[in-house]
Amino acid sequence: MTFTSARLLAGVIALAHGVHAFFPDCNLGPLKDNIICNPHANFRDRAKAVVNEFTLEELINNTVNDSPGVPRLGLPPYNWWSEALHGVASRHGVNFSAVGDFSSATSFPQPILMGAAFDDDLIHQVATIVSTEGRAFNNIDRAGLDFWTPNINPFKDPRWGRGQETPGEDPYHLSRYVYQLITGLQGGLGPDPYFKVVVDCKHFAGYNLENWNGNDRKGFNAIITTQDLSEYYTPSFPPCVRDAKVGSVMCSYNSVNGVPSCANEYFLKDLVRDFYGLGNDHWITSDCDAVNNVFTPHNYTTSNANASALSLKAGTDIDCGTTYSTSLGDAIDQNLVTKADLKQALYRQYASLVRLGYFDPPEMVSYRKYTWSDVNTKNAQNTAYMAAVEGIVLLKNDGTLPLKKGIKNVFLVGEWGNATFQMRGNYQGVAPYLITTLDAFQSSGFNVTFVNGTLNSNDTSGFAPSVAAAQTADLVVFAGGLDETVEKEGLDRMNITWPGMGGGQVDSSSLKNDSRVNALLWGGYPGQSGGQALVDIITGKQAPAGRLPITQYPAVYADQVPMTDMNLRPNTTSGNPGRTYKWYTGTPVFEFGHGLHYTNFSVSWASGGPKKSYNIQQLVAAAKGKTHADLGVLDTFKANVHNTGKTTSDYVALLFSNTTAGPSPAPLKQLTSYEHVKRREGRTDENRVARGHARDRRAR
C-alpha cells in the first residue's frame, strides 16, 4: 500500500506554511459539530472523536513532527517541534521576524550556568517567563505549543558537546531543577483546564555522546549496568514525568545494551508510561531521524517498515522525521502494525492539543491574550541578569576581587572579551541585546583597551603591542572560553586541555597554580546580560555565590577513560578512575560544588545537627506514608548561616551523605539536599537557616 500523492501534498503544505500554529475553526469549519469542538467534553473523548474521522492515509501522514493536518476536516498543519532551552529558540517550529515585533526573545543563560546557582525559585521564574513568551509567539503563528526541552541527561563526561544544555552532573540536582522548570513552563502541576505549553523531557536514556573518535550517537550502543541505569542515568526522569506531570518525553538516538531507545518497549512502555506514569494521555517523540536509525546504522531491523513498526508499538507516537510517513503503509501491508496502533498514537497527540486549548475559543484560554508586550519585559531582563549573576562561580581569588577604588585603566584581551552570539550557547534564539564584557566595562566608566587575541593560532605579531598595553594598565582581564566551534550538538571534544578553548569542564591547573593569575571566574554561557553580570561581580556591585555543578578534571582524565565507557565506578583493569564527584578517585582541579565568596561565612548545625548514621530500614518505613517512598522526608537538617564579613552575599548550602552499603565501590559522597540562602548581610543575625530534606534513596 502506498500513499505517494498524499505525502507529496503534505510536503507542499509544509513548505508553503513553514510554521504551523494557527487554530482550527470550530465555529464555521467542517468540525463544528464534532465533539472535538465542545470545550466542556472530556479531553480524551474529544481527541478520539476527531482522530476517528481520519482515513488510514491521514493517520499515517500525521505521525510525523511536521504534521500536514487534514484539510478536508479543517485541521491545519501543525509542527510539533519548537525549542526553548533557555529562551524561545530559532529552531524549526519557531519563526522570528526580521525586525520589529517578535524579532527577539529573552536570552537566559545556558542551563549549565543556571544550574550553578542551585536556586529552585530562580529556575521556576525563568521557566514562567519563557513559556509566556512562547505563548505570545504562538498567538501570532510564530511558534507551536510544544517545546522540546529540557535536556536532563546528567553531564557525566567533560568532553560531551551538549553538556552545556544540562544543569550539571548530579542526578539529584537535575531532579529538583527539572521539577521547577516543568511546572514553570507548563503553567503548574498538571494544570487544568489548560496547559500553558507542553514540554518534553529528553533524551531517554543513557545519552551522553555526540561523535567521539568515530563513535556516532545515531549508532552508538551504550553498555550500561542495571545499577548505573537506576542510580545515575534515569533518576532525573521520574521527577519530570511522575512528579511534575510533563506532557511528553523524547527517546534518544543511542541503543542501550543492544536495543535502540526508540524501539525499546521496556524503556518506553514499562518504565516511562507505566512505572513513571506518563500513561496514555501524553506522547513520546523520537529524536530526529532516530526511527530511521533503528534500521540504520543500528542495524536492529531489516527495513524501515520494521523499524517503524517496532518503534510505534514500543510507544514512540511521533517520528521526528519522515520514516513513519514513508514506511508505515508498508508496515500495514505486512501486518506489522494495525490501524488501531496508529489511532492510539494520534489519540495521545490530540489529547495534548485539546489540553492546550487548541480547539477552544480564545476568550476561554487566558494564555491567548499574550502579545509582543509580554516579551522581554523589564522583569524578564532583570531575571536574565540575575540568573547570570547567581550562576557565575569564583574559582580563585587572592584578594584582588572585588576591585579596589582607583582602578580605571583596563586591558581586556581574549576572544570572549567582545563576544556576542557566543554568550547564548546552543539552542539559542535571537536576543534583544547582548551586553559584552567590553560594553560593560566601558559603561561602568573604565578606560578600556581591547585586543581580541587568539588561543588557536601561532601568530605572535600582536604580542608586542599587547604586552606594552598590558604593562600600562591598572588591570588585565583575559576573557576566554568554550563556544560552539569546539562543543555543540554533534561535536564532542577530544581533550580538555588549557590553553586552547576552555572555561567549562577543562583543566584550569595552569591558571589555578600561577600566582600571576590573581583571580579566576567561571561564567558558562551567560546570555544577554552576561558581560554586565561578569563586570558587576568583578567590581563588587554583585557578590559571587555560584557553585560548580560539574567536576573540573585534570587533562589526563581524557586519556584514562574513553567516552564510550558508560561505567561510573572506578575500575583498575580498564583504568577508569571513576566518573563525577561521586566516584572519581583522582584529584580534581576544582571539585563539584566549589565556589568562593567576597566574604566569610560560618555554618553550624542548629539543635545538635543530624545523626552520624541512619538505619535504612527505619528510613524506608518512615517514608511509607508517601505515595512514592523516594519522596518521603527522612529528616530535616537546620543550619545557621552567619555572614561574618562586611560584604552582602548569597550563600548556597550543599548537604552530602555517604554510605558503605550497596554495590562496591559505594559513592564517595552524594548530594542529598541544597538551599540557596538569599542576600546575607555582613555581621547580621544568625537565625535564618538553610533546610535540607534528605530522601530515602539518597541517605543510606
UniProtKB/TrEMBL annotation:
Q: Which SUPFAM superfamilies match?
A: (Trans)glycosidases, Beta-D-glucan exohydrolase, C-terminal domain
Q: Which residues form the Glycoside hydrolase family 3 N-terminal domain?
A: 99-348
Instruction: Give the location in the cell.
Output: Secreted
List keywords of the entry alphabetically: Carbohydrate metabolism, Glycosidase, Hydrolase, Polysaccharide degradation, Secreted, Signal, Xylan degradation
The residue range of the signal peptide is 1-21
Q: Which InterPro entries match?
A: BXL, GH, Glyco_hydro_3_C, Glyco_hydro_3_C_sf, Glyco_hydro_3_N, Glyco_hydro_3_N_sf
Q: Which Pfam family name is an example for this entry?
A: Glyco_hydro_3
Q: Copy the pathway line from the protein's UniProt record.
A: Glycan degradation; xylan degradation
> Domain of life of the organism in this record?
Eukaryota
Q: Carries keyword Ion transport?
A: no
Instruction: List GO terms (cellular component aspect).
Output: extracellular region
Domain spans labelled Glycoside hydrolase family 3 C-terminal: 392-500, 503-598
Q: Name one GO biological process term.
A: arabinan catabolic process
Question: In terms of one coarse class, where is the protein primarily found?
Answer: secreted
Functionally, this protein is described as follows:
Xylan 1,4-beta-xylosidase involved in the hydrolysis of xylan, a major structural heterogeneous polysaccharide found in plant biomass representing the second most abundant polysaccharide in the biosphere, after cellulose.
Family affiliation:
Belongs to the glycosyl hydrolase 3 family.
* Record's protein name: xylan 1,4-beta-xylosidase
